[in-house]
Amino acid sequence: MLVADDHRLMREGTAALLAPEMGIEVVALAANGREAIERAIATRPDVVLLDLNMPEIHGIEACAVLRNRIPDTHVLVLTVSEQEEDLYAALRVGAAGYLLKDMPPAELIKAVLDIGRGEPTIARRMAARMLTDLRQPDDRPTKGARPTKLSRRESEVLALLALGATNLEIAAQLRIGHPTVKTHVRHVLDKLHVRNRAEAAAFAARNSTTGGQM
Question: Exposure of 141 by Cβ count < 10 A (0-12 exposed, 13-18 middle, 19+ buried)?
């Protein structure tokens, strides 16, 4: 993986935290957005851990470039920003996850491993706000063709999918049976015309940004 942060202490400290973990190899560090792009293209890591507010090229723009140039690399944002617009902007350009720098080290390690396996992850505080957004009714007209509208329960399942929650975790959170969750997930994917949970999470981010009604 590659760690990109303009603060040396954060950059090197994060690398030192992650490097000893089995399944994680830090192949490069970057101090700004331009370095992140150049070194990621050169090394093609499985995961880029990317700060947002960096010199030369902002993290959002860097993420967009990386997703275009090396689409097999997963970009995981690690930031202090709790602004919803930053979360949605990052997900819109293809970030596979959005985490906050005050998270426990063990959770960061787990998130990096999850992202490497293609499992999206969002900081719980940010995901909770996304869930609130998705639950709010919106009467504004939508533009263009829309997927089939989700039920309230399906919208709740979608929001938890955006968290990276497993079916068992969704069942516990919503207090419903595991088979019921599997049915809801299948309906969500079918109604949104998406292939997997990651695409469903990206759809949730887009609709939270645009105010689209589900």
Answer: exposed
